[in-house]
Write a structure and sequence with these properties.
- By secondary structure, the chain is of the alpha/beta class.
- It has two domains: 17-269, Rossmann fold; 271-301, no CATH class.
- 38% of the residues lie in helices and 16% in strands.
- The protein has twelve helices and eight strands.
- The chain has helices spanning 4-13, 38-52, 71-74, 87-97, 109-115, 117-126, 171-178, 191-203, 217-223, 229-239, 272-284, 297-300; strands at 59-63, 78-81, 102-108, 130-136, 182-187, 207-213, 240-242, 259-266.
- Helix 5 packs across helix 6.
- Bound molecules: thiamine diphosphate, iron/sulfur cluster and magnesium ion.
- Iron/sulfur cluster is lined by residues 32-33, 36, 38, 67, 137, 141-142, 216-219.
- Thiamine diphosphate (TPP) binds at residues 65-68, 84, 107-111, 135, 137, 139-143, 148.
């Protein structure tokens, strides 16, 4: 029989994990497979958020549907698990109704750039003030490993058994050319860089975008005979080149090819709300009341 006093003493000696404060611990264990990279990114997010110094009561997390889309449900703050592809319009509404919020979209490559692709490009174009964290595992993980707009040429998928022949998205280039003001790419191996990029993105005014490459060992790696999650991390370590400021046109991803990482874009331009207020003020003069957030009868009570 174990000595419970000794065990209790041992448990008390284990320091609390600092990330626990950011998680809904009652939801743990999580759904992610062993070796999946999504959990690692959540750890980085918690550290990035802590280092940003933002008031957690003023941060809202929005996810779509997918394995990555489960993140919102595990974070211990105002979080919303929305419908597939609709995280960005939901987040836009949240931000416009309450501009004081820091709104974060945390979702997958399929969710944000396939069914949600149209919303992605327009939020970049409008420079809606939000941070988008996109987990790129090159596939639709949750639904069984179908080909995605991010599946590299020649990689196989359940719906592309002979390999993918469609050109994939270069997401940093897409985000920059549509108007994002902060664009970075890292991998789940580069945890310190991810933390720093998340902190910077959270503190940036305007549409900030962080792409994080993460292993999906269960579907993408297994089908492509790439080994387990650790093997994919080794690939990230050995094939990544950090090139801050690289021309995003040149950072497209090939199958198990060189990976260009870094902060590619960090510029200033008016956000959607700033542009709207400035334009209407110019057009209407003093008759226009600057919009600073939703007002309703309950606000005055
Ligand atoms: C309208 C609608 N279409 C399709 C689906 C099925 N579906 C759920 S998750 C998903 C793909 C998710 O892929 P991704 O965003 O890359 O997330 P991952 O699971 O890879 O993290 C799809 C197609 C759905 N839930 N709703
Ligand atoms: S299916 Fe892939 S993306 Fe989904 S939890 Fe498993 S390893 Fe992660
Ligand atoms: Mg995916």
């Amino acid at each position: 029989m174990p000595d419970t006093d000794v065990l209790m003493e041992f448990n008390e000696a284990v320091p609390a994990n600092p990330v626990e404060a950011f998680l809904r611990m009652d939801r743990i264990p999580h759904i992610w497979c062993p070796g999946c990279g999504i959990g690692t990114t959540v750890n980085c997010f918690a550290h990035g958020l802590e280092n940003s110094g933002l008031d957690l009561d003023k941060v809202a997390i929005v996810s779509g549907i997918g394995c990555s889309g489960r993140v919102a449900g595990y974070l211990n703050m105002d979080s919303f698990h929305t419908t597939h592809g609709r995280a960005i319009p939901f987040a836009t509404g949240l931000k416009l109704a309450n501009p004081d919020l820091k709104v974060v979209v945390y979702s997958g490559d399929g969710d944000l750039t396939a069914i949600g692709g149209n919303h992605f490009i327009h939020a970049c174009r409008r420079n809606v003030d939000m941070t988008v964290i996109l987990i790129n595992n090159h596939t639709y993980g949750m639904t069984g490993g179908q080909v995605a707009p991010t599946t590299p040429l020649t990689a196989t998928a359940t719906t592309a058994p002979y390999g993918n022949f469609e050109q994939s998205f270069n997401l940093p280039y897409l985000a920059e050319s549509c108007g994002a003001v902060y664009v970075a790419r890292w991998t789940a191996y580069h945890v310190r860089h991810v933390q720093k990029a998340i902190k910077e993105a959270l503190l940036k005014k305007g549409f900030s975008f962080v792409e994080i490459l993460a292993p999906c060992p269960t579907l993408y790696s297994r089908r492509n005979k790439l080994g387990d999650g650790l093997d994919q991390m080794i690939h990230y370590k050995e094939h990544s080149v950090v090139m801050n400021g690289a021309d995003t046109k040149t950072v497209g991803l090939g199958f198990q090819d060189k990976i260009v990482l870094g902060k590619f874009v960090d510029i200033e331009r008016p956000t959607y709300l700033d542009a709207m207020n400035e334009y209407y003020k110019h057009k209407m003069g003093d008759t226009f009341e600057t919009y600073t957030g939703r007002s309703c009868a309950c606000d005055t009570n």
